[in-house]
Amino acid sequence: AAMGGFTSIACMPNTDPPIDNAALVSYIISRAKEAGRVNVYPIGCISKGQKGEELAQIGELKFAGAVAVSDDGRPVENALLMKHALQYANMFDITVISHCEELSLADGGSANEGVMATSLGLRGITPAAEEVMVARDVLLAENEGVPVHIAHISTKRSVEIIRNAKARGAKVTCETCPHYFTLTDAAIEGFNTNAKMNPPLRTEEDRLAIIKGLRDGTIDVIATDHAPHHVDEKNCEFALAANGIVGLETSLPLCITYLVDTGVLTLNELLKKMCVNPANILGLNKGSLSAGRPADIVVFDPKESFTVDVNSFQSKGKNSPYDGYVLNGKVKYTIVGGEIVVNQGVLL
To answer: What DSSP element (H or E) covers 59?
Structure first.
């Protein structure tokens, strides 16, 4: 994280065991303070064991230090349970982050439904698998008058649903990830498992719609969806390979190269989506350089280019589709709580 310029990260609860109780939240906070170089904020489960059957103790998770609740990696399929989660989370002033995937529509697929999946003989995932759930959770939140944050949107229609909801005054925020505005499903050609993720990479039309959503403010946040995997989890049949890519060490330069250098966003607009908005959504006293705020700072050269080399990653996971890419935006210093943890691009 520090090598990528991140001073704070929020860890998802799709762990073993899932982060569904206060004791685990407290343990993660304590362990992170002992071992970590950056600030780690745990996200608790919406449902016990991420099983989607019974709500976790959302209030206890909040009081223990969780900054949000999510069943990320799995959708909350029961609409009534999600409605109750939104209500309880609002009572305790904690954000609900929704992983939007209708599993019956996803139908066990492994790539975006389209020409590429068909040509490779892969079972496709219809974009509607994401969009139906986005629409459901936006409407649930709107009807209750409570906030919801939609994770990692990837399709044109998801952007449109959220744009329209915001125009109606719904308290919805959302995020996307660098891979959804830099890559399309063409990246899986040759059964490239390093380009397999959930949601899957989509079409060029979807990619352009994501960029438009970033430009017009529909999309509030750019998140990494960092998901490192052992080589054995990727070096297998495409349908069996684990979903996800490492993102922490490439996200900032990808955003600079594909959004700032192309004129989609100004640097200040980018920093708002990567720093200010995430902090506000999670209720953190961070995200800006001002008196009284923590001295969490990244110093980077937006013009310095470098070639991505996965073998140089600090992450144990090397599963990145960007190996060999030439990007702009080299991290020079990362300062956490006033202490330098990365000096001239070297982790201390």
So the answer is: helix 58-64
Q: Are 46 and 76 in contact (CB under 8 A)?
A: yes
Residues across the chain = 348
Six token digits for residue 321: 């589709």
What's the pLDDT band for 293 if we cut at 50, 70, 90?
Answer: confident
Q: What are phi and psi of 205, to 5 degrees?
A: -60, -40
Q: Which of 6, 49, 44, 9 is nearest to 27 (CA)?
A: 44
Q: Active-site residues: which are they?
A: 225
The overall average pLDDT reported for the chain is 97
pLDDT tens digits along 265-282: 999 999 999 999 999 999
User: Does a cis peptide bond (omega within 30 degrees of 0) precede residue 199?
Assistant: yes
CA–CA gap between residue 139 and residue 144 (Å, rounded): 8
Residues whose CB is less than 8 angstroms from the CB of residue 292 and which lie 6 or more positions away in sequence, other chains included: none
CATH class of 2-291: alpha beta
**What are the boundaries of each domain within the chain?**
2-291
Residue 36 has pLDDT above 80, yes or no: no
Determine contact, residues 13/45, Cβ cutoff 8 Å: yes
Q: Give the residue-averaged pLDDT of 107-114.
A: 98
pTM of the model: 0.97
Task: Tell me the pLDDT tens digit for each residue of 190-226.
Answer: 999 999 999 999 999 999 999 999 999 999 999 999 9
Helices (H), the chain: 22-35, 58-64, 79-91, 103-106, 115-120, 128-144, 156-167, 178-182, 204-216, 231-234, 251-255, 267-271, 277-282
Phi-psi region at 295: left, alpha or beta (left = phi > 0; alpha = psi -120 to 50): beta
Place of tokens 């989607």: 52
